[in-house]
Write a structure and sequence with these properties.
Elements lengths: L12 H12 L18 H15 L2 H15 L14 H17 L5 H24 L12 H17 L2 H17 L10 H22 L9 H11 L23 H11 L2 H11 L3 H7 L10 H7 L13 E4 L4 E5 L7 E6 L6 H14 L16 E5 L2 E4 L16 E3 L23 E6 L7 E6 L10 E10 L5 E13 L1 E7 L4 E2 L5 E5 L2 E9 L4 E11 L10 E11 L3 E12 L7 E2 L6 E4 L4 E4 L6 E2 L3 E4 L2 E4 L7 E10 L2 E13 L2
Antiparallel strand pairs: 1-2, 2-3, 3-4, 4-5, 6-11, 7-8, 8-9, 9-10, 10-17, 11-16, 12-13, 13-14, 14-17, 15-16, 18-19, 19-20, 20-23, 21-22, 22-24, 23-24, 24-25
Helix pairs in contact: 1-2, 1-13, 2-3, 2-4, 3-4, 3-5, 4-5, 4-6, 5-6, 6-7, 6-8, 8-10, 10-11, 10-13
């Protein structure tokens, strides 16, 4: 597709119009004559989109426009200025786009321009290749789970195929095979949604090149590409415009890649990907382009949308509302997909996810290589994001350079967050054993309920003596949250519960706190502890999201609600968060064993450690009993016995999770 500029058969009027529009977008700009301090990645698609437009239409105006930007790029002595000139993202982007332009319109360029472009591609490709060889085992050359690796090798591969440099394509192909084998099979990505949309398209680009140039089909190698749209889909906020911002996210708008959606839809027959591609390249396109903090952004992908769109694939609006991604320990649950629906996203895993953590430890021990770059990962295991009524209510920090647990919806011990935090590479050189994980997950597609327990005690400094810090999160069918935090330490500690919001919370009824964001709101009730010291204060977060533009600064103000206990060896926080302008009343359930919250027609009973629940009507040996409206079947988590109103509904030798008929 890419090398031959040949899309799947069939009409594509919307994609063609997008291509022509993008080909003309820079006509009023003067190309730079010297290298700007900022990133020049955008120069590549400024040349390739009009090149493809000329290839499709034969219009000489597009040819002239492509030539303008080609000449601007090739006269720069280096690609990249502020950070790793010739050896990183600027060079990777330009190698890819200008190599395609050379392939598509090289014969139509004046001989002098064509020769200069070929020379520049050979020069930059050699620089990139030599750096990749020399730096193996360090930085992007073997950072298999990182967008720099995928982009730089895809750029090298594009140039190699166009110029006939087998040495380049073979090295890039070997790396691609390793990446596909090592990426998580569930399709999740620890760098977060923004870097998913920035980097994963280049994996698809490389696969496309490999298939067309060598006849090698690796689209089914590993499970990542097969399943990664499912991950991206469930990190969409209701209404489809915004994204959940776990990991480094410049903003909540920079999440769509219509071109990649189309390619995944065509390759794997995913109707939801086709539908979302149409939405992203249509109704959502210009607002994302205007508000996205990631450059070059979504507009330059017009060439991919044109070449990867397959008209034979039917689109279908998403319907599934529950998903769990075990490698990243990511639970996503929602009440629906409409703008006013409620979504929670809750995660806990080792740095980079389980597979990356395990494999990179082997690389370190066996090869002496550092292959897991954790720059975009956060100390956020056990944290969650809540979206409802079209607004973000419990929020994440987004992007930061000095990453801290205190910027997330987490817990502090004696005012301290994770060990070795407050730096950019927050998981670098920490002990292998320092891992978080999820257990007792309930997230069936037709369940209605969602439940998981995050184990995060290992993430705190050993000198704090934290033996247990378990957070259980329950999402009810109506979109209400129940959180149970259980903490234990060897000596007395102060324990602090944190909730981050975009605006300061306000005093609410019955001692609760109101979260407001525009017209949206939610009521927070903390049933335990009853004697906590509650404080609301602003938290400033600053970041430079790209080393190629060192003067760029993003600043964000979080409003942090904290509840701190007195000193004790153990602590229990029982909290409900109920979205809605008229929230359902939440009450604590009187339990002889376990903890419970009821909202009337929905009741949550929890005992994640002892697994003994005893109330006036329920006797269960289980981590959780979840009761819906009268007449509906209960759900249980890790249960061996359930007795409800004197009737034994479950009695099994092995723990069972699911619906009890």
């Amino acid at each position: 597709m890419l090398l031959s500029a040949t899309p799947p058969p069939g009409p594509r009027p919307a994609q063609q119009a997008r291509l022509y529009e993008e080909a003309a977008r820079h006509r009023g700009l003067t190309p730079p004559r010297t290298h700007p301090l900022a990133s020049i990645t955008w120069l590549g698609p400024a040349a390739s989109n009009p090149a493809l437009a000329h290839r499709v239409s034969g219009d000489p105006v597009h040819l002239a426009e492509s030539r303008r930007w080609i000449e601007a790029a090739v006269r720069l002595p280096h690609w990249g200025k502020a950070h790793m000139p010739d050896h990183d993202l600027d060079a990777g982007w330009l190698l890819h786009h200008l190599s395609l332009a050379y392939r598509w319109i090289g014969d139509d360029l004046p001989e002098g321009v064509r020769a200069l472009l070929r020379y520049k591609l050979l020069l930059q490709g050699r620089r990139m290749y030599e750096f990749a060889v020399a730096s193996e085992g360090r930085w992007w050359s073997s950072s298999y789970w990182q967008n720099h690796n995928w982009i730089c090798y895809a750029g090298l591969a594009t140039a190699g195929y166009v110029l006939g440099k087998e040495e380049w394509t073979e090295r890039a192909k070997e790396n691609l095979g390793t990446v596909l084998d090592l990426m998580p099979d569930d399709g999740s990505h620890a760098e977060g949604v923004v870097y998913w949309r920035y980097g994963v398209p280049f994996l698809a680009i490389h696969l496309d090149l490999l298939q067309e140039a060598e006849g090698i089909d690796w689209w089914g190698r590993g499970g990542f590409l097969t399943n990664t749209f499912h991950y991206r889909l469930h990190q969409l906020a209701p209404g489809f415009a915004f994204n959940v911002d776990h990991g480094d996210c410049h903003d909540r708008r920079s999440g769509h890649s219509a071109g990649l959606y189309y390619r995944l839809a065509a390759q794997y027959g995913i109707p939801q990907a086709q539908w979302l591609g149409d939405l992203a390249s249509g109704e959502l396109l210009w607002q994302e382009a205007a508000e996205s903090g990631v450059r070059p952004g979504i507009l330059p992908e017009a060439y991919l949308e044109y070449l990867w769109y397959d008209p034979s694939v039917s689109g279908a609006r998403p319907t599934g509302t529950r998903a769990f991604f075990p490698d990243l320990g990511l639970l996503a649950a929602r009440t629906g997909w409409d703008d006013d629906a409620t979504l929670v996203s809750f995660k806990a895993s080792p740095g980079g996810g389980h597979k990356a953590w395990e494999t990179s430890a082997k690389h370190r021990a066996e090869l002496g290589w550092e292959t897991l770059n954790q720059g975009h990962h956060h100390p956020d295991s056990g944290s969650f994001v809540l979206v409802s009524q079209g607004a973000f209510l419990a929020v994440d920090e987004g992007y930061s350079n000095r990453k801290r647990a205190a910027h997330h919806n987490l817990l502090l011990v004696d005012g301290r967050g994770y060990a070795d935090e407050d730096r950019y590479h927050v998981y670098k050189d920490i002990p292998y054993e320092r891992q978080a994980r999820q257990r007792d997950v309930l997230a069936g597609p037709d369940c209605g309920w969602a439940h998981a327990t995050a184990e995060i005690a290992a993430m705190y400094d050993p000198d704090l003596g934290v033996r247990r810090l378990d957070r259980t999160l329950v999402f009810t069918p109506a979109g209400r949250l129940v959180l149970l935090d259980l903490a234990e330490a060897d000596t007395e500690r102060e324990w602090t519960f944190l909730l981050q919001t975009d605006r300061p919370t306000e005093p609410g009824p019955d001692g609760g706190r109101l979260i407001r964001s525009g017209a949206a709101c939610a009521l927070v009730r903390q049933f335990a502890p009853q004697d906590a010291s509650v404080v609301s204060e602003a938290t400033e977060v600053e970041a430079n999201p790209t080393s190629s533009t060192p003067e760029l600064r993003l600043t964000r103000t979080l409003h942090t609600l904290s509840a701190t206990t007195g000193r004790s060896t153990d602590a229990l926080f029982l909290t409900s968060i109920v979205p809605g302008s008229v929230p359902a009343p939440a009450e604590r359930v009187l339990c002889a064993r376990g903890q419970g919250v009821t909202f009337g027609e929905e009741t949550v009973l929890l005992s994640p450690v002892a697994r003994r629940i005893r109330t006036a009507s329920v006797s269960a040996d289980a981590a959780a009993v979840l009761l819906g409206a009268e007449g509906s079947a209960p759900y249980v988590v890790a249960a061996t016995r359930l007795e409800l109103d004197g009737r034994v509904l479950l009695d099994v030798p092995e723990p069972y999770t699911g619906k009890v008929d």
